[in-house]
Amino acid sequence: MNEQLTYFDRPERLGIDDILTDYTSLKEVQIMQNIIDSMPELVIVINDYRQIVAFNNKTIALLEPKSIYEVIGKRLGEAIKCIHSGEMEAGCGTSKFCVECGAAKANLNTITNRVSSLEECKITSKLKGKLVSFDLLINTSPIVIDGKNYTIFAIRDISNEKRREALEKIFFHDVLNTAGAIHGLTKLLSELEDAEEKEEISNAIVSSSEQLLGEILSQRELRNAEDGNLAVDFKEISANTVILSVYEIYSKHELARGKVINLNYGKEDIIFHSDSTLLVRSLGNLVKNALEAITNGDIVNIYYDVDDKNINFNVKNNKFIPENIQLQLFQRSFSTSGKKGRGIGLYSVKMIIENYLKGKAWFITDIEKGTVFTLSMPQGTAHIE
């Protein structure tokens, strides 16, 4: 076995002949197969190299393999097509992202210490050309069969629970707060007599109402996107208009109080085709995230640049993102603020931009230069005005 680089777990793996020997031997242990088939969760059995050597019917139902060779000998991330499973030559369990993976942590603990482990795990897979996110509860247990060590890997999909938890948190926190603010401002408006003060409060009510409506529409869009039912309306739009729309929404947002948002137009406006509503909402999510990350007096810059094929919409702030957080961004249910159930903003951005608007979403972060999130949209038939 060639020595290969790893950032987390051992890189070595057995060849297919050894895997087939284990697979055949375990198939003959009929009681074990009956037991894992009877379990309500997806269950796999792995060897000490983290390779699958047995699996139950639920695994077949989820993965829909064309042959057993798409499952046996693979590691979990490879079988489920995790987007990070191919980043290292040694495969699943060896990349920087695996350091924060609940499945990888449970796996390593059980194999190393021969104890059971329970971890939550977020996996983003690419299935049939689209990003799909899973929230999983991983339960690993050691087992010895015919004198050989194996690990039973039970996997329960808790995506619906996490989705409901996030939705409840958003509506109980963000939406309720905004609705409460509108209620308070409306009561205050009825008590005022000064015309200027009334106009100021009226404008604040309109702004808060727009925030409330935007939050509700964002949740509807995300749910439709996850269900594959999001309607996309591609029309000719202007790059300058996109960033101006985002600026107008968030320059009046409560998160912007005491902070500065700089809007930097392109020297020449670019006209291209996309869904303006979805793009503005996605870019707005990045601005909202940036505003939450900075402190009073700090600056958020909104701008775009153009290369041969793409228009790159950028949101920059002066904060550095620690590596452990970098490795989990864009995952559903992960929140940079640590507030349970709040982490769907960046996840929805990546899903909508990459699955529906034919673009790419990424970020770079540097201790000295800060952080830039980018939405890269194809120019297509774009032209300059």
Could you characterize the architecture of this molecule?
The protein is of the alpha+beta class. The protein has 2 domains: 16-157, Beta-Lactamase (2-Layer Sandwich), CATH 3.30.450.20; 162-384, Heat Shock Protein 90 (2-Layer Sandwich). The chain contains 11 helices and 13 strands. It has helices at residues 16-28, 30-38, 57-63, 76-79, 102-113, 159-191, 195-226, 239-250, 276-293, 323-326, 345-355, and strands spanning 42-46, 52-55, 117-127, 130-145, 148-157, 235-238, 260-264, 270-274, 299-306, 310-317, 360-366, 370-378, 383-384. The strands form 3 sheets. It has a 5-stranded antiparallel sheet with strand order 2-1-5-4-3, with helices on both faces. It has a 5-stranded mixed sheet with strand order 7-9-10-12-11. Strand 9 and strand 10 form a beta hairpin. The radius of gyration is 25 Å and the shape is elongated. The chain starts with 15 loop residues before the first helix and ends with a strand. 34% of the residues are buried.
